[in-house]
Write a structure and sequence with these properties.
Layout: H1 2-17, H2 21-48, H3 51-74, H4 80-103, H5 114-143, H6 145-162, H7 179-191, H8 194-224, H9 229-256, H10 259-279, H11 283-311, H12 317-345, H13 348-365, E1 401-408, H14 414-422, H15 424-431, E2 433-440, E3 447-454, H16 457-466, H17 469-479, E4 489-494
Helix pairs in contact: 1-2, 1-4, 1-5, 1-6, 2-4, 2-7, 2-8, 2-12, 3-4, 3-6, 4-12, 5-6, 5-9, 5-11, 8-9, 8-10, 8-11, 8-12, 8-13, 9-11, 10-11, 10-13, 12-13, 14-17
Length: about 500
């Protein structure tokens, strides 16, 4: 509620400070920009540090900055540049808050309840999006923008008090990662996960086109519809109300339709709503368009967020969520600049129409990229691997580590074995391997060796804790081709420094 109110007030304040459409669009860029810079770090921190502490710190930060911005606005000390700086700092707080908050959902519910939990989360967010802008516009009209900002800051206190009853997070077993290695492992996991790669591509395409709505809505309200702050809040509230309705119906749609169908229908609905807003001269039609855009927003982003939550294992879940937000806010930030420039050079309606047409073309072009919900049971950690016994235990930084898994495969089974073994490539890489390959022996026809390299011993230790139930099932499928009566031989070699 508080963040939605201050975001609405910041956009309207900029519209009153300058007539520049481009500067108004930059409010969205400064608010979403921190996700581009810090989003991956926020995800890594949320996987390493107790999330409850992160949420508390970010709420205190956003409360303080919103309060100071309100006081400065009342005193007449805020200009376009200082407003952009304040929205950037608030965006930083939101950047570190969101991965920690969303990654906590899986700790409270199981796979079957996840779509309902994500929908409830969307309902809460979008009720705030509906009530926040409307309340902000009303307060700005009655008290002025500065006083409305001060009032919005008080809502952050509710979250701070509510954290007293939040249960403490149960930290995962294993060796905690450092910040930079955590960021690298999160990026590696997403890159080598086909399901997450498709999600990121879809998110970027939709977010870039959808940015036209958010970047130009204040100008549409001011210039196209001749509305004041309360009218702008009414349009934003219409969007939020549509999002609430979309969130309420989302579990019903996901239980009866494929995720891919729900997302594509949401994209088409967004295009129709955008066209309606672009051609509207009456507030009633613009409100209908905003309502449809809200439903479409939830159908796409909440559905894809659910897919990410169900596809990423616990050790990297916050980083996967952060990657989702980085994709969303990067596309929104870049899109805001592009559509603001298009509107400045041509026309607001033209910019909205081009964005809608582009989204339709991208949806059609990506029809072969199918989205699916993951199985929560398959991303749970598998049975722990047995401990190794060494004459001398390697140090954490020693490495690289070379792992060789030697199989004995009958020539008649080799093709089927290689097909199964190739499925291990992305699994090894996303869990920590820097390289992977299968070799056959030139002198012993049945000898096949799987070989992969881990950067350090500590990364190898982490890899052993990251194998999920699904990973171990695929590994068992490969091992089933081993000739009977012969054990699979695993060799672990560690690099020696040059002397």
């Amino acid at each position: 509620m508080a963040y939605a109110m201050q975001a609405t007030l910041a956009a309207w304040l900029m519209a009153t400070l300058t007539p520049s459409v481009f500067m108004v669009a930059l409010v969205q860029t400064s608010s979403n920009g921190p996700f581009i810079v810090f989003g991956l770090f926020a995800g890594a921190i949320a996987d390493i540090i107790e999330r409850r502490k992160i949420i508390l710190v970010t709420q205190v930060l956003m409360f303080s900055v919103t309060l100071l911005l309100g006081i400065a606005t009342v005193a007449g000390l805020v200009g376009p540049v200082s407003l952009l700086f304040a929205t950037f700092v608030l965006g930083c707080g939101y950047t570190f808050y969101q991965p920690a908050q969303l990654a906590s959902v899986n700790e409270l519910v199981g796979r079957a309840e996840l779509p309902h939990a994500m929908s409830l989360n969307s309902i809460a967010n979008n009720m705030a999006r509906a009530l926040g802008p409307a309340s902000a516009g009303l307060l700005a009209a009655l008290l002025g923008t500065g006083s409305a900002l001060i009032a919005s800051a008080m809502f952050f206190l509710m979250m701070i008090v509510g954290l007293r009853w939040t249960p403490k997070q149960v930290m995962l077993p294993g060796v905690p990662e450092k910040l930079l290695s955590g960021v690298a492992s999160g990026m590696r996991y997403v890159w080598h996960s086909p399901a997450l790669r498709v999600l990121v591509i879809k998110i970027v395409g939709f977010g870039f086109c959808a940015a036209a709505f958010w970047a130009l809505l204040p100008v549409i309200a001011r210039d196209q519809l001749s509305l004041d702050a309360s009218g702008y809040g009414l349009l934003s509230g219409g969007f939020g109300l549509g999002a609430v309705v979309g969130a309420l119906t989302l579990p019903f749609h996901l239980s009866r339709k494929q995720l891919n169908t729900v997302v594509n229908c949401g994209a088409v609905l967004w295009c129709v709503a955008t066209f309606l807003i672009a051609v509207s001269h009456h507030v009633a039609f613009a409100l209908i368009g905003a309502f449809g855009a809200g439903m479409a927003w939830v159908s796409t982003f909440a559905s894809m967020a659910t897919a990410i939550q169900s596809s990423a294992p616990a050790w990297v879940r916050a980083r996967a969520v952060a990657t989702h937000f980085v994709a969303v806010f990067t596309s929104l930030a870049v899109g805001s600049i592009v559509w603001g420039a298009v509107a400045s050079a041509a026309d607001i309606r033209m910019a909205m129409a081009i964005a809608a047409i582009l989204l339709l073309l991208l949806t059609a072009a990506a029809r072969g990229m199918v989205l699916r919900l993951g199985e929560e049971a398959n991303v749970l950690p598998g049975a722990p691997a047995p401990d190794h016994v060494f004459a001398v235990e390697p140090r954490p930084g020693d490495g690289p580590v070379l792992i060789q898994v030697e199989y004995r495969i009958a020539p008649a089974d080799r093709d089927a074995f290689l097909q199964a073994a190739n499925a291990m490539d992305p699994i090894r890489r996303r869990n920590g391997a820097s390289s992977w390959r299968v070799f056959r022996d030139l002198f012993e026809d049945d000898r096949v060796v799987e070989q992969f390299i881990i950067a350090s011993w500590i990364e190898y230790v982490r890899l052993r804790t990251r194998l999920t139930i699904n990973d171990r099932q695929l590994q068992a499928r490969v091992e089933a081709f081993q000739r009977p009566g012969i054990d699979i031989r695993v060799t672990r070699l560690i690099g020696i420094e040059k002397r």
